[in-house]
Design goal:
It contains six helices and seven strands, in the order βαβββαββαβααα. It is an alpha/beta fold and about 220 residues long. It has a single domain, classed as 3-Layer(aba) Sandwich (Rossmann fold), CATH 3.40.50.1470. Strand 3 and strand 4 form a beta hairpin.
Length: about 220
């Protein structure tokens, strides 16, 4: 059995905000693989899923973001699962909007939901999938920014990334973390490299008109 937890804040007022992209990814995964209706357990909304013969529990904590660990720890304890069976999906301010990055362990990087889970589990050694939402702009307070909604361009990028992140979850379930990292981290690195090269490509200089004054009249 595996557990996939999407982080966010409960309540309609937070739907579609930057801090709730984790909710969006698990909702897309559940749309594809859910078996039965959601149930309220472990201070979370739980959906039973099945993929490639593997049972997968999808969880969206009903605590607020900074208390996510209060939901995750009891869930793992009840099913006697190790942290390696857990995949946490969350937003990340350090990554460009829509960029996907998977890791097997690490610090919270300031993400309050991850920090809560690390504290409650007593270890940072669990897989996580982070989705970039761009750094906080200079004129914004971080709390206001993460609780704000995407502009039109960002939303379009994020919709595509949510779909790809759900694909990444499928690979993690079926083939494991290394396969997921190899497919999606490398893909994102190549995408960003191509974007950088395209941006840095010099613009062809227009030919000068009337620049040759050597002809005599």
């Amino acid at each position: 059995m595996k557990v996939v937890v999407g982080l966010g804040n409960p309540g309609r007022e937070y739907t579609g905000t930057r801090h709730n992209v984790g909710f969006e990814v698990v909702a897309e995964f559940a749309r594809r693989h859910a078996q039965g209706r959601p149930q309220a357990k472990f201070q979370a909304e739980i959906v039973d899923c099945s993929l490639a013969g593997e049972k997968v529990l999808i969880a969206t904590p009903l605590t607020f973001m900074n208390l996510s660990g209060r939901s995750v720890r009891p869930l793992l304890d009840f099913y006697k699962l190790s942290p390696e069976s857990l995949l946490v999906i969350c937003d990340d301010l350090s990554l460009p909007n829509g960029q996907i990055r998977t890791k097997g362990k690490g610090s919270s990087g300031g993400q309050k939901g991850l920090q809560s889970i690390i504290q409650m589990l007593g270890t940072p050694d669990f897989p996580r999938l982070r989705i970039g939402i761009d750094p906080t702009p200079p004129q914004w307070e971080t709390a206001d920014y993460v609780l704000g909604k995407f502009n039109t361009e960002q939303r379009s990028q994020m919709d595509s990334s949510v779909y790809q992140a759900a694909n990444a979850v499928e690979i993690w379930v079926k083939e494991g973390l290394t396969a997921c990292m190899n497919q999606f981290n490398i893909r994102e690195d190549k995408k960003n490299s191509d974007k950088k090269q395209k941006k840095e490509k010099p613009v062809d200089q227009a030919p000068e008109i009337g620049g040759d004054d050597s002809t005599s009249g």
